[in-house]
Design goal:
This protein starts with 5 loop residues before the first helix and ends with a strand. It is built from five helices and twelve strands. The chain has 180 residues and is α+β, with helices and mostly antiparallel strands. The longest helix has 10 residues. Strands 1-2-3-4-5 form a five-stranded antiparallel β-sheet, with helices on one face. Strands 7-8-6-12 form a four-stranded antiparallel β-sheet.
Length: 180
C-alpha cells in the first residue's frame, strides 16, 4: 500500500475504497478506487508523486451531466495529504450507488418515519440529493442518499449514519423500510 497513515487507511476502509500503486518513470501514481466488485475497482481519483517530492491530487468530479477528472490539490508534501484531498471529493452518488447495489439487495427508495424536527433538518441538507419530506415525519431516501449516509463526511450539525436498515440521527434510531 502507498505511504498513508492509519487515519487515511481507516477512511479508505469505511468507504470501501482501496489504493492501487503504479510507477511511471520518475513519477509515482496511486489510484484511489472504489471496491464495487469489478476487477480493479472503479477509480475515483489518483495522486501523482513527482521526482521533486511534490504531490498532486486529481478526483472524479461532476461536469454537467457526466463525471470527469479535475485537479483538486497541488503542492502537497506527502502521499497521505494527497489521498486525503481525493477522499474529500470521492463521495458522489454514482459511486455510492454502485457500492449500495453491490450489497446484493437493491431498492430504488427507502422510507423512514422520524421525529418532525429531524425530518425538517434532513430537508435542509444540500448533500446528499435524494431526500424528500413526505409529511408527518415520513421521509423518503433514494438509494444514493442512503449510500451517502452510511459514512457521511464531516462536519454535519447532527450525528447521522445508516447501519443496516437503521437510520441513526442525533443518536436516535429509526427503521428504514425498502420500497419495492
Amino acid at each position: 500500500m502507498a505511504d498513508v497513515g492509519a487515519a487515511v487507511r481507516r477512511l479508505l476502509e469505511q468507504r470501501n475504497l482501496f489504493l492501487k500503486t503504479e510507477h511511471d518513470g520518475p513519477e509515482k501514481i496511486v489510484y484511489v478506487c472504489v471496491d464495487d466488485g469489478a476487477p480493479g475497482g472503479l477509480p475515483v481519483g489518483h495522486v501523482i508523486g513527482t521526482a521533486g517530492g511534490v504531490w498532486l491530487a486529481y478526483a472524479r468530479v461532476p461536469q454537467g451531466d457526466h463525471f470527469g477528472s479535475a485537479q483538486v490539490a497541488l503542492g502537497l508534501t506527502t502521499c497521505d495529504e494527497a489521498v486525503r484531498a481525493v477522499l474529500d471529493h470521492a463521495r458522489y452518488s454514482d459511486i455510492l450507488r454502485s457500492i449500495e447495489r453491490s450489497s446484493g439487495v437493491v431498492a430504488k427508495t427507502y422510507t423512514a418515519v422520524v421525529d418532525p424536527g429531524h425530518a425538517e433538518w434532513l430537508g435542509t441538507l444540500e448533500e446528499p440529493a435524494g431526500i424528500t419530506q413526505l409529511g408527518n415525519g415520513k421521509v423518503r431516501f433514494t438509494e444514493s442518499a442512503i449510500a451517502y449516509l452510511r459514512k457521511p463526511p464531516p462536519p454535519l450539525s447532527l450525528f447521522v449514519e445508516v447501519q443496516g436498515d437503521q437510520l441513526i440521527l442525533d443518536f436516535m434510531t429509526y427503521k428504514l423500510t425498502r420500497d419495492r
